[in-house]
C-alpha cells in the first residue's frame, strides 16, 4: 500500500467532508461518528462533487448525500443506498497518524476499504 498525506484531521469537520484534489482522482475525506473515510468525490449518477453533500446515517449506514438529486453513498463500500444512483463510487483505505490523514488511492477498489478511527 502507498499511503499519502492528504490533509490534517482538523481540516475536516465532524460530521463533514473535505474535497482533496490528487493527481489521478479527487476524493472526499469524510468524518462521521469518530471514523474517517475516503470516497471518490464524484456522484456516479450526476457527476457532481459528493463533498458538497450532507454526511449522515441513512438506513443504518454512514453515508454522504449527493446534493443534486439526493442519492446517498455508503462511506464503507461506495454503494448507493437509494435512487437515482445505481452505480457505486470508489472507496479508499484511510490511516490517521496523530493529526495527519493518509489515503491510499493506488489500490484495487473492488473490495471495501476499512475506516480509520
TrEMBL record:
Keyword Oxidoreductase among UniProt keywords: yes
Record-level Gene Ontology MF annotations: 2 iron, 2 sulfur cluster binding; dioxygenase activity; metal ion binding; monooxygenase activity; oxidoreductase activity, acting on paired donors, with incorporation or reduction of molecular oxygen
Classification via CDD domains: Rieske_RO_ferredoxin
Alphabetical list of Pfam families matching this protein: Rieske
Domain Rieske: 4-103
Superkingdom to which the source organism belongs: Bacteria
Keywords: 2Fe-2S, Dioxygenase, Iron, Iron-sulfur, Metal-binding, Oxidoreductase
PROSITE patterns the record matches: RIESKE
Name listed for the protein in its UniProt record: 3-phenylpropionate/trans-cinnamate dioxygenase ferredoxin subunit
Amino acid at each position: 500500500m502507498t499511503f499519502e498525506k492528504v490533509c490534517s484531521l482538523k481540516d475536516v469537520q465532524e460530521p463533514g467532508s473535505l474535497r482533496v484534489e490528487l493527481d489521478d482522482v479527487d476524493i472526499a475525506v469524510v468524518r462521521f461518528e469518530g471514523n474517517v473515510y475516503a470516497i471518490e468525490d464524484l456522484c456516479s449518477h450526476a457527476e457532481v462533487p459528493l463533498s458538497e453533500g450532507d454526511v449522515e446515517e441513512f438506513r443504518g449506514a454512514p453515508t454522504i448525500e449527493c446534493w443534486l438529486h439526493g442519492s446517498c453513498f455508503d462511506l464503507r463500500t461506495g454503494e448507493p443506498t437509494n435512487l437515482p444512483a445505481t452505480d457505486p463510487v470508489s472507496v479508499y483505505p484511510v490511516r490517521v497518524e496523530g493529526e495527519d490523514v493518509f489515503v491510499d488511492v493506488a489500490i484495487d477498489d473492488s473490495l471495501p476499504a476499512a475506516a480509520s478511527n
